[in-house]
Amino acid sequence: MDFLRNLFSSTLGLGSPEKVLDELTLEGVARYIKSGKCKNIICMVGAGISTSAGIPDFRSPGTGLYANLQKYNLPYPEAIFQVDYFKKHPEPFFALARELYPGQFKPTICHYFIKLLKDKGHLRRCYSQNIDTLERVAGLEGEDLINAHGTFYTSHCVSCKKEYNLDWMRDKIFSDDIPRCEGCSSLVKPDIVFFGENLPVRFFTSMKMDFPRCDLLIIMGTSLQVQPFAGLVGRVPKSCPRLLINMEKAGQADPMLGLLGFGGGMDFESDKAYRDVAHISTCDDGCLDLAELLGWKDELQELVQKEHARIDSLDQKEKAGESKGASAAKSSASEAPEAKKEE
Q1: What number of other Cβ atoms are within 10 A of residue 266's Cβ?
Q2: Quick check: is 149 catalytic?
Q3: Which one of 111, 122, 149, 279 is the catalytic residue?
Q4: Using one digit for the tens of pLDDT, what is the confidence trace for 190-205?
């Protein structure tokens, strides 16, 4: 009977889960982190954490990616990320990729806040919907990161599956070439998940290990509309606090399902709310607010300043090298006729 009672309780959301936060505010979350009980924080992040870097999100009216694709003459906005359309008409996708390609943008305050969580021993994993690779640029390593919707970091031939790296793909895209396999001449596609494709296997294997152990879930910059990513919020233990930092509330439970006791959706306002906190702000401002409460604000700002200066320095060196190479090539070209005359 105990087994059946526990089964129905976990399935239907019955019983009284432990309340971990002393209050459902950002201050309550900060006190919980400072208590030393948080060693397995999972971050779930979407396009909203990269907008301050200059990368548009997908769905914001007027400024979102889907609202600004008219120039590509698509039958409908989502076609740019559909495999069948891509195989017949790859040009729109690669034109868009040129605009959004990794290496043109710097990580945001939010990216570096996640890096601080790692450095301080709190981060279990970051699950990202983003394909911009800014988590890696900020210092997260492969083991720290699950790219739920894939990444530009690697690419594969759609036919023979030969792998290509980030630099190879960048060279092709910025030379206006449609990337084609050196082995079989088929299209080469970045390893981002298009509509109709399966998510990476590692997403599912890691999810099963990570979420039952999560002791704080931080959700930032996502509308929580795309499955199966959105469903991850319901996979943490019933007592696990969940913090949303976003411009609007998201992921809330369907009222009808809530009446039946189903779902793991967010509950910020009902009388039964006991673990979900919504901090309505930009992701950067929310991370700064939380960092200040944790006593990390100065450290975070110094990290951002130092890393941005390092990236700028590398960019300047790269541009100087390209300029020197171009000058040398120009000089060689101008000297070539002279050499011919001497002969």
Answers
A1: 22
A2: yes
A3: 149
A4: 999 998 788 989 999 9
